[in-house]
Amino acid sequence: MKTTFYGQSTFEIETSGIKLLFDPFITHNPLAKHIDINSLKPDYILVSHGHGDHVADLLEIQKKSGAKVICIAEIANWLNSKGVDNVHGMNIGGGFNFDFGRVKMVVAIHSSTMPDGSPGGNPAGFVLSIGGKKLYFAGDTALTYDMKLLEDENLDWAYLPIGDNYTMGADDAIKAAAFINCKNIIGMHYDSFPVIEIDKDEVTEKFIKAGLNLKLPAVGESVEL
């Protein structure tokens, strides 16, 4: 199983011939200008919330790939209004068994509005049981004690925002890793805008001192999970 970083919070997970794409924001991200979205052919697209830096390429990639979109109910309704019917709506605390594995939608502390101003429902994260591993995609979130509910999930990897300002920063992400009892962390939601630029060396050192394995892949780089 591998995961590929496409900038901001956009990741692909590929296992057993199935591709899952998270929060597609590529064409408007200057750090991802070398990525051709036409080359992405996901089977599923998972959307954590409705902000533009998470859904900017959602409609185009879904149309070209035919991917099923997994998202909260309000975003599912918004997609239906845009002519997208291949959608699986969920809500916080609910889980569902897909052909690739199980997805549970969990709490994220943030806000959510669609780019056109339509309601985006509540922001969310995902816990995935896939390919014999358990993964946590936190979405955009503050540090929250609700993360303690995941400490017994035996997570193999966690995708955590570290850019600060709009989400938790590195220090709170380290606390989050302790809450969820996961030492393998993939950082996200950083560097795309000036207010979320980070010092990678400083952040990496903080994670090392905390006994954590932090991965900050380059845009387009893959990591084995």
TrEMBL record:
Stated family: Belongs to the UPF0173 family.
Protein name, UniProt field: UPF0173 metal-dependent hydrolase SAMN05216464_10459
Keywords of the record: Hydrolase
Species of the source: Mucilaginibacter pineti
UniProt-listed Pfam families: Lactamase_B_2
Domain of life of the native organism: Bacteria
Domain Metallo-beta-lactamase: 7-189
UniProt-recorded Gene Ontology molecular function terms: hydrolase activity
InterPro entries: Metallo-B-lactamas, RibonucZ/Hydroxyglut_hydro, UPF0173, UPF0173_UPF0282_UlaG_hydrolase
SUPFAM superfamilies from the UniProt entry: Metallo-hydrolase/oxidoreductase
PANTHER family: UPF0173 METAL-DEPENDENT HYDROLASE MJ1163 (PTHR43546:SF3), UPF0173 METAL-DEPENDENT HYDROLASE MJ1163-RELATED (PTHR43546)
Keyword Cell membrane found: no
